[in-house]
Amino acid sequence: MMNILITSAGEKFSVRLAEALGKTHELRLTDRRRTPEGTPVVVSQLGDDESTDDLVKDIDVIVHWGKPDPEASDSEQLDQAMRCTYNLLWAASRAGVSRFVYLSSLSVMERHDDAHAVTEQWRPAPTTEMAGLCNHLGEYVCREFARESRIDVVCLRFGDITWDGEPASTSALYVEDAVQAVDRALGLEFGEERFVWVQQELRTPGGRRKLGTSPNTYWHLFHIQSEVPNARFLTLNAQTDLGYAPGQAGSREGA
Question: Strand ranges (DSSP E) for 40-84?
Fold first, then answer.
């Protein structure tokens, strides 16, 4: 059993996730403004203050939803994606939180041709649409914390979350598959041989700059979508390394 903090608790998916994880873990829920009825939620702006420190106290894993609030202004959405994510990561790293699960979106790959087999090794190519841009910037903040070995980060790029009865797109992600992916990410153990390559700037002895790569064992990135006709994104890495099994998460009744 772990102590888990789930942000954006007012989101429909967060409510469903809390229902599933609450059966085996102790949960703390937080939201910047919206709270589901009948559920105890800590309202937090995720500021750079003691309230955020208190929020992550005694927490083992944080599940942070990168989706911006569509009712907020563009500047507020960008602030949530970058500053608030930074504050939460900073507080978590100081408190000794072992893992940070960032729920991003496959919309960060939107500008790639849908005829291509896009994997995690492809560079992000978001459009100027706010949701994809915010997720991309949130990922960048998370990756920098991981690059400095401050905290272990698992980034799950979700497809279009699809509830029963809704039409499925080529990047659809059924709710139970999404819940399963998060559950797999919570307790996954990575060996030293499991890493991704992160590009960084290096300096030669003569002072000239060049680009190099170095292994980062603290940053783990997975594409998550369901098995649907003409699926746009490959999930082989998630299935191999995360143990993700789309379509095998159990019954979708009540999703």
Answer: 42-43, 61-65
